[in-house]
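Hello Y.,

Per our agreement to keep a running log of every chain we model this quarter, I'm adding this entry. I've kept the format consistent with earlier entries: sequence first, then predicted structure.
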Amino acid sequence: MLRIKLVKSVIANTPRNRAIVKSIGLGKTGSVIYRKDTPELRGALHKIKHLLEVTEVAEAPEANLPPTHIKVRGAGTQAEAKPKAVKPAKAPKVEKAEKAEAKPAAKKRTTKKEEA
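Predicted structure for the entry above:
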C-alpha cells in the first residue's frame, strides 16, 4: 500500500502532469491518498515524482481507502443513490399567430408634431 501526498502545486506544470495528478485522485496541495502498489500506478507516479511524496505503508486507515470504480454523486454506493427529481411538464407551445391574437393592440406613439 502506498501513501501519496501532493506537496507541490500543479499550476506551473504541463496539462499532461495535471491530468495525471487528477487521475490518481489528488486534488489540492497537501492532499493525501492511499493506493495499492501496482506497476501502472508506479509508472504514473514516476512521471510526476517532482510533485509528490510517496511512502510505503503496511495498511491504510479505513477512512482513506479509495472508493470503488463506480462513482455516484452524493452517495457512497449505488444502493444508497437517491432517485433524480422529476421535472414538471412544460406548458404546450403557443404559436406566434395565437400570441398576437391574445395581446391587445399596442398604442401607436405619436410625436408632438403629429399631434398638431
